[in-house]
Design a protein that fits this description.
The protein has 18 helices and no strands. It is mostly helical.
Length: 305
């Protein structure tokens, strides 16, 4: 339920940047996170109804839209030659929350004896993020919504190709983050605590490596880096299968960590490809000045959504 809502709200969140302004929407969207955070206290009580769990899950899903709006916003600040690095850095910073939760949250819950303290820590952090955004971020007047460009992007086959490539990189990263610890417990008989000591490493490296993937794409081309990355992911997956069949924990863990790194590299390189494709198509159509920039810089947010 959380992931479904998070996926759906990404689309309107990409339009909200131009509608409200990058700074303004960051403040609003950050403040909105207080709603599911406070609501989560309700599910801590024994006997909470299933419908309440579903409602809180729906509210928690709105956090998924923040990623899409941040990518749309940061895209407008950099020229094409630097977009891979900038978008990769922004995405890496956002996704680093996965290993933070896997490691720091467990430590906090273990020390406090329950998850309530963790929720309590979220509230001042959310407020601080909103205040800092209001103080230091800027609204760009040049960012405009172009519904025509968005419709063109939806009909363009390149959009759907990039969507599948994105699923292969970022989707794999999310899937691996959930599955890694589960497999260590079910197949290698590790306790949840023992698995937690290892599982955070993969998402951490996968997040930190994203700017590197974007930077390599800036230098050598997004398509080349993405193709090479998928080939490497196939090889690493083969090693993972062999390790699983042999019951080799060391080889299995190493192959999984390599897969995490490759998903991060590939994710960074796809970020470079998205704006580049649409800007090239705009240039090919002979669009001039502001219209070209709007088509080349505005469309990328829609595929991210």
């Amino acid at each position: 339920m959380v992931t479904l809502v998070g996926a759906v709200v990404r689309v309107p969140y990409t339009f909200a940047v131009a509608l409200f302004g990058g700074r303004n929407w960051t403040v609003i969207s950050a403040a909105l996170l207080l709603v599911p955070t406070v609501a989560a206290f309700a599910v801590m009580e024994p006997g909470t109804s299933y419908s309440t769990f579903l409602l809180v899950g729906l509210l928690a899903g709105i956090g998924g839209g923040n990623f899409a709006s941040s990518m749309t916003n940061i895209n407008a600040f950099f020229p094409l030659r630097k977009k891979g690095w900038a978008l990769g850095l922004n995405a890496g910073g956002g996704n680093i929350g996965v290993p933070v939760i896997q490691l720091a949250a467990l430590a906090i819950i273990g020390a406090s004896g329950g998850p309530r303290v963790l929720l309590g820590l979220y509230i001042p952090l959310i407020v601080a993020a909103a205040v800092l955004a209001a103080r230091y971020m800027d609204n760009l007047a040049s960012v405009r919504n172009d519904t025509g460009a968005a419709q063109d992007a939806a009909r363009d086959p390149h959009t759907w190709i990039m969507a599948f490539l994105y699923i292969g990189t970022f989707g794999s990263f999310i899937g691996y983050s959930f599955a890694f610890g589960q497999v260590l417990q079910s197949q290698f008989d590790r306790t949840p605590l023992e698995a937690a000591y290892v599982t955070f490493v993969g998402p951490l490296l996968g997040s930190l490596i994203r700017p590197v993937g974007g930077s390599l794409a800036d230098r050598y081309g997004g398509s080349r880096i993405t193709l090479a990355n998928f080939v490497a992911m196939g090889a690493a997956t083969s090693v993972l299968i062999v390790a699983s069949m042999r019951g080799s924990l060391a080889l299995f863990t190493g192959a999984f960590v390599v897969l995490f790194v490759l998903t991060g590299l590939g994710n960074g390189s796809t970020y470079k490809m998205i704006p580049g494709i649409f800007q090239a198509k705009a240039l090919a159509k002979g669009l001039a000045g502001r219209r070209r920039r709007r088509t080349g810089g505005g469309c990328p947010g829609r595929p991210w959504g």
